[in-house]
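Weekly modeling sync, notes
Attendees: S.R. (lead), two postdocs, one rotation student

Agenda item 3: backlog of single-chain predictions. S.R. asked that every request posted to the team notebook include the full sequence so nobody has to chase files. The rotation student volunteered to paste the first one in as an example of the format we agreed on. Action items at the bottom.

Example entry:
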Amino acid sequence: MVSIDFEALDGLPAEEADDIAAHAAARWPWYGVLPEPVKELHHVRQARHRGPVYPRDGLEFAALNATAFEDVRVVLLGIDPYPDERAAIGLAFSLPAGMPFGRRAAVRNLRKAVLHDFPIDSSPVPNLNGDLSAWAGQGVLLLNRALTYSPAEGTYGHAHIWETYTDRIIRLLDERPDPPVFVLLGEPAKRISPLIRYGAMVERCHPSAPGLQREFVASGLYREIDSHVSGERIDWWQ
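Predicted structure, as returned to the notebook:
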């Protein structure tokens, strides 16, 4: 990661300063909006020395790389990455292309909810898989509250590293002139609701909540999201 001391740029020729700033912009996805998480990355690197951390180095900011700040229309907030090196790709809930759902009920039920809200008659049902990257390309920020996960520290183990930073992301998005829709699934996600003052909020149980999965699938999640999103409708079947 490139970390720029902008005060130091003041003493440089304009062309050289512009070149350095452009180099930083190429490396940091939300350059000019959000500072690089230098302290957080330091803690993550220390954790990687102690044992496995998911996703792999370089994918921590995949969600920010996939959806530019100004393009975010919906924030789908997860908790932390999958505890699996192959499954964790830095996009909340999403699996790599071609990977079966397996026991990952959350993403499977997210897809089933699409079928409930927008039923189709064709067989086989198209795109009932766990790759949600096409959503990111339509302005859905697939953001985990914690951007990394350590098996040694368990669920929420890296929350203390990342929550201040991801809370800042949420505030910045909410303070835009056109704030996105915030989709909060489950109690941990709903705890960020006090941060949101301007954007619409859509709340549901977690898609993998025991005993509530059928309720989630039939809850009309995407139709409610669509009712708050202006412009071109998101194609949830992608």
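Discussion: group reviewed the output briefly. The first helix runs from residue 6 to 9.
Action items: rotation student to repeat for the remaining queue; S.R. to check formatting next week.
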